[in-house]
Specification:
Layout (H helix, E strand, L loop, with lengths): L8 H27 L8 H17 L6 H18 L9 H17 L11
């Protein structure tokens, strides 16, 4: 692998990673905020906010070394999108998905850099 031209390349990457790390609590709060008003079942607007908040984490976490955080956000985002696309809008999967999202938030609050996903029981 060729060396980067910028001698401060690694320091710059570290600074970006640190900025992302500092933003994780706000990103998790955005997911929690989108989740909080979601009743049983949530309406389409609530699901769209939740999907967007998860998508933001899923799209950027891996780039900054938060691979598992991003992978789990992507998994949950896809599940939310699946609910949004259900025919008839019956939200049959919501009761199972809600605790998964809450477990993700709890896990991320402990160590968002973790390399394995072991949600709280």
């Amino acid at each position: 692998m060729a060396a980067p031209l910028d001698p401060n390349y690694r320091a710059h990457l570290q600074a970006l990673g640190d900025m992302f790390a500092a933003s994780v609590p706000a990103r998790m709060a955005a997911i929690a905020d989108a989740l909080a008003p979601a009743g049983t079942p949530p309406d389409r607007e609530q699901l769209a906010r939740l999907q967007a908040a998860l998508h933001t984490v899923a799209g950027s976490a891996g780039s900054f070394g938060f691979t598992v955080l991003g992978e789990q956000a992507r998994r949950l985002e896809q599940a939310v999108r699946g609910l949004m696309n259900e025919h008839g809008g019956n939200m049959a999967g919501w009761p199972e998905l809600l605790p998964q999202i809450q477990a993700y938030l709890d896990w991320a609050s402990d160590n968002p850099r973790a390399t394995t996903y072991l949600p709280h029981d």
